[in-house]
Amino acid sequence: MRVRAQNPLNLKLLLIIVTTSSLLLFTLKSTLPSSSSPAGFLSRKAKGGAGCSPGKLPTSVAEALVHYTTSSITPQQTLKEISVTARVLDRASPCNFLVFGLGHDSLMWHSLNHGGRTVFLEEDAAWIEQISRRFPMLESYHVAYGSRVSEARGLMEAGRGPECTAVADPRYSMCQLALKGLPSIVYGVEWDVIMVDAPTGYYDEAPGRMSAIYTAGMMARNRHGGAETHVFVHDVNREVEDQFSREFLCEGYMRKQQGRLRHFLVPSHRDDPNRPFCPLVRTAA
C-alpha cells in the first residue's frame, strides 16, 4: 500500500473532506440528544470504542486531519475508490478491520474506524519501522509471503481443488494458497472488513496477492453466526487481482467496482455445509 504523488490536490481534498465529515458526524452523535443515545453509547463502548467528552475531537481523527492537510504525499487509491470503503466504515465502525498493506493512507483507515481495531500486515520490515516512528498508534505486523506472481497460474489451478474449496481455518487448511504463518492475532479475531492492497504484485518475482485474496475469502467464509464480511481488493486492473478476486471472492458476492477497487460481501459458510463455494451468477438470456 505504498504511495505516489499523483493528483495531490484532488486526493488531499478528498482526505480532508472524508476526515472532516467523519469527525463532524462523530461530534454530532456525541452532542445531539437522542432517545437511543445512552444505549447506543454503551453498545459502542462494549464493542471496544473509547468514549470522549462531548464536542472534543478524538485524538486519532485530529492527528489524521492535521497530517493529511499538511502532507504533499497522497494514497494510491483515488477519491472515488477511497469513498467506497469510507462509506462502509461509516456504517460498520467501530469494527474489526484487517488491512493487507501499510502506508501513508493507514492513518486514514485507522481514523475512519475510530473506536474499533484496525490491524495492518506488511511485507517490508524496514517500512513498518519507518511508518511506526511517524504513527506509533498504528497496529502493524510483519508478514512473509512464500509465493511469486510468476506462480499465479499454477496456484489458480491448485485453488480449484477440493482442499481449497472446503471451508476451514486457514491455519489448518491443506490448500496451497492458505496463509498459515500470519501473526496469531489475525486468526483469533473475526474481521468485519478486510482490505487487500498488498503485498507487492506488479512484477514476476514479487510475492503477489494470490494468497492474500484467497485467505481473506476463507476468513470470511469461516466466521461464526452467519456474519457477513466486507472484502475490498485494490488494483483489479492487474491480471492476478482481477482473476483471483473473481475466483475466490466470487462474482456473485461482488457488490461494486469503482475504478481499480472491488467490493465483495462474503457470507459465512460455517452453518450451511451445502452452500456452494461461489453462488450461481445468472447470465442474461
What report would you give on this structure?
The protein is an alpha/beta fold and 285 residues long. It is built from eleven helices and seven strands. A seven-stranded mixed beta sheet has the order 3-2-1-4-5-7-6, with helices on both faces. Helix 1 (8-31) packs antiparallel against helix 3, helix 3 (59-70) packs antiparallel against helix 5 and helix 10 packs parallel to helix 11 (239-250). The longest helix has 24 residues, at 8-31. The chain starts with 7 loop residues before the first helix and ends in an 18-residue tail after the last strand.
Largest sheet: 7 strands, mixed
Shape, per Cα inertia axes: globular
Number of helices: 11
Give, in spatial order, the strands making up the sheet with the most strands: 3-2-1-4-5-7-6
Q: Regarding quaternary structure, how should these chains be classified?
A: single chain
From the structure above, extract its key features.
single chain; 285 residues; 7-stranded mixed sheet; alpha/beta; 11 helices; 7 strands
